[in-house]
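For the sake of transparency, this paper describes our internal protein records without simplification. The remainder of this section carries one protein's record, kept here as part of the documentation:
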Amino acid sequence: MSRDVQGENLGPQLPLALRYPPDQRFDSFIAPPEGVIPALAALATAADADWVYLAGASRTGKTHLALAVCAAAEQSGRRAVYLPLAAAAGRLRDALDALEGNDVMALDGLDAIAGTREDEVALFDFHNRARASGVNVLYTARGIPGDIGLVLPDLRSRLQQCLRVMLDPLSDEDRREVLRDRAQRRGLVLEDAALDWLLTRTDRDLGALVALLDKLDRASLAAQRRITVPFLRQVL
């Protein structure tokens, strides 16, 4: 699972290829909970789909799926936007007002605005408007609505009405599969021995591992060498 986060620019839209990197699609999400991909695909493409609330610890794939929803929506001809709420904290009403007119909205990281009453009121108002106008919304957070520090009871109540999906941390085998998938998408071959070396001797955080893979890709191209254990020892 890729964990890239969109930039903080809330202004002009970027081209689809830049907004939604190809690594972050439904088909590249490893070990999804049962039913989550169909639910998110419906949210992206169907006007009457259930709204979804994705909950999970850091690095469980929430941003990956939020970006995948937006990519799927635009590929089906719908207007979509991804908003990292940390980038809009303290000015959420203005940010949401600026993004009206979309068919699908992915609001990533509710934790960032939880406890700030002005932002929570803005989100509550947005939620009601979006319901009334037929916009589909995806929320993500590190916990369920009652556990992330929201101070507005009415907002908690609205969020609890969404279809809730819990994402679990990846197992070691899932991490291995993510790295193998990312390597293949870059045209790299990672032997099992090299994968074992990476998973046992480097930061086990998946985001750090994927970033490390980018570094190894560049080093491999520069040295014109395959990624083997001796090469890993030399580079790292």
